[in-house]
Amino acid sequence: MYFKLFCVVSALSLFSKCHCLGEKDEIQNHCDLLRQWLAPSSVTVELNKKGFHREVTTTVEFRSKELSGVKVLLIHRWPRDVYVDPYQLASLSDQNKWKILLDSPIDLEVPAHEASGFVTYVYPFSTGPTSKLFKVTIPIHGRYHKPSFDGKMFKSVDIEAPELLLRTEKCAQLSSLEPHTVVDAPCTASNSSTCSWVKVKPQQDLNPVSFQLPVGDGSLVAHVCGGTLLVTMICCVALSKYMWKHQII
Amino acid sequence: MEKLISKVTEKHILFTASFVIRLALVAYGDYQDRTMAVKYTDIDYHVFTDAARFITEGESPYNRSTYRYTPLLAWLLTPNIYLNMVFGKILFIVCDVLSGLLIYKVLCLRGLRAETARCVSSLWLLNPLPMGVSSRGNAESILAALVLGTLLCMEGKAQRLTWAALLYGLSVHMKIYPVTYALPIALTLRTAEIRVDEAKKTSRFKKLVGFFVSFFNRDLLLFAVVAGGVFFTLTALFYYMYGWQFLYETYLYHLTRRDIRHNFSPYFYMLYLTAESTWSQWLGLAAFLPQFALLLVTSWMYYKDLAFCCFLHTAIFVTFNKVCTSQYFLWYLCLLPLVIPNLSLTVKQGLGLLLLWFAGQGIWLGPAYFLEFEGYNTFLWIWLAGLLFQVVNCFILIQIIYDVNLLFHHIPKSTLTFTFKYEARIMKVPTVSQDPKVRLWPVYQIA
């Protein structure tokens, strides 16, 4: 009888060991999967439209074949020369296949020298289980800059390439994925919790995209002030003269 | 053609048609918003709706950035959240048609025949500009209705002063610019001067004292108390509810606003280039003085015809303001139909001035588009176009002043030998309708 008990217990323990080993294997598989995703993938940044209202399109293409369960995060660090309109983003959220989180409130009206840079966290969701491509288009707007006094008609604005981060719920031991860096960032766009993410090193170092914004010509300040005040004074005097002549008694 | 015009301007058809057209535009706007990339609805409407949403959640409407209006507007639009988002637009188009009705009533009180008054009102009711503005969700029509209501109550012998003061106080609470009407209204309501024979000389000091004393009469005090009471009660109430932010966003921001971004104002480039310099404050003052001086001159010269005075006031205020956007044009365009019957311009001349006004705007919009949407540096062209637009506006105003004066008999001071009341009696002049040069409106005569 004891022998039977012994057999059952050893069978059970063998089974549980196998199961644990199986689980460990599964976790290892998920982490390997993540490692596969960390294999060089392409990130391209494009700038569209002209003038003060532009669109920054970030396209990420993965080489890995099996994609389910992995979450993607794009972190853009924007300079103070531009801003995004949170209300515009909210109105576009229905059409977009991504959610966005801003790290600070944005003043839509201040000029560049009174503003500060900000960070956006974009969480794209995949269009299908086999989709390897993520495309995110963010509308940005240029701020007014201080007028230039050195004859330059434009101010150059540089937009750095975003950081690409990955995580999967099933792989918790992100340290096993060294030498890739692990950073903390909000888990989702609702910003209710922070998770650990793995940063993907891009295939090649991306140069920032840049564009030009027109600025006022400070060297003309005397002419502009003089001209404006002269014309408005003339108009003021002319109007007063006519009103005086044609008044109602 | 005449038959068609008279058919369209029949009372019930005119007002019904103008409301139905606006309603159709609102419906179309909803369709465009849902289907096309370029939205019909103005961004301001979303600002109002978001502010109303904050109120329904028990918060301040000023949590919505760029909401720079009275909380009363957000409160009025809370049905946007409880009922349907289109409620606000319906309210604005109703106020728009109401403004047309008020224009009609004022014109009738000023002595026009009902038919002619309806014809002139159709310049507002069937005008695509106010139609577009209200159906896109701008709240300007509420203010137009309040200002026109004030003028209606002030017009004619049966003045309804309490109502006028109430509406005036409310209009100043909603937007600051009607505060400029305070001086002409005060000059209208003060005790009339009794002109005496020129031979009897009164000292300057006595005249000055007499002038100041004339402001202390029952009518003016009643108006001041009621209007002031309404304004300060509302201000105190909203200050209690929303604090300093209400005062800043609703009033102080507009008073101190220095928008360095491109706009129609001739001062825009000057203020942009000097925004960081020590001269900024002095230049701001230099920009304010012509505006202030002209408003004083306008009040003194034309207070006897309050509607015309208010029109000139607002047109000058907008033309010489440090910031000018196309929304501001509606502030004086709603008063233009009141002035038109008093102009002896031919249709050709009138259309010519209108085209000139649009051309001035078009010349500005060109370089502005290239700056904002194509990225060219057209700041200098925008500045020059802004100056040109100001010259065009002044030219049109001078034409109007010159032309409307033909109606008033300009009696040189030296021939005055009798006493008279400043209040003119409006007499209708018989007309011959076939002759296009003969005016179809009454002539003011000193009785």
TrEMBL record, chain A:
Stabilizing subunit of the glycosylphosphatidylinositol-mannosyltransferase I complex which catalyzes the transfer of the first mannose, via an alpha-1,4 bond from a dolichol-phosphate-mannose (Dol-P-Man) to the glucosaminyl acyl phosphatidylinositol (GlcN-(acyl)PI) intermediate to generate alpha-D-Man-(1->4)-alpha-D-GlcN-(1->6)-(1-radyl,2-acyl-sn-glycero-3-phospho)-2-acyl-inositol and participates in the sixth step of the glycosylphosphatidylinositol-anchor biosynthesis. Probably acts by stabilizing the mannosyltransferase PIGM. This is Phosphatidylinositol-glycan biosynthesis class X protein. InterPro entries: PIG-X/PBN1, PIGX. Pathway: Glycolipid biosynthesis; glycosylphosphatidylinositol-anchor biosynthesis. The lineage of its organism: Eukaryota, Metazoa, Chordata, Craniata, Vertebrata. The gene is PIGX. It comes from Oreochromis aureus. Its main location: endoplasmic reticulum. Keywords: Endoplasmic reticulum, Glycoprotein, GPI-anchor biosynthesis, Membrane, Signal, Transmembrane, Transmembrane helix. One of its GO terms (cellular component) is endoplasmic reticulum membrane. It comes from the Eukaryota. GO terms for biological process: GPI anchor biosynthetic process. Residues 1-20 form the signal peptide. It is found in: Endoplasmic reticulum membrane. It is a single-pass membrane protein. Belongs to the PIGX family. The chain crosses the membrane at residues 220-244. It holds the Pfam family PIG-X.
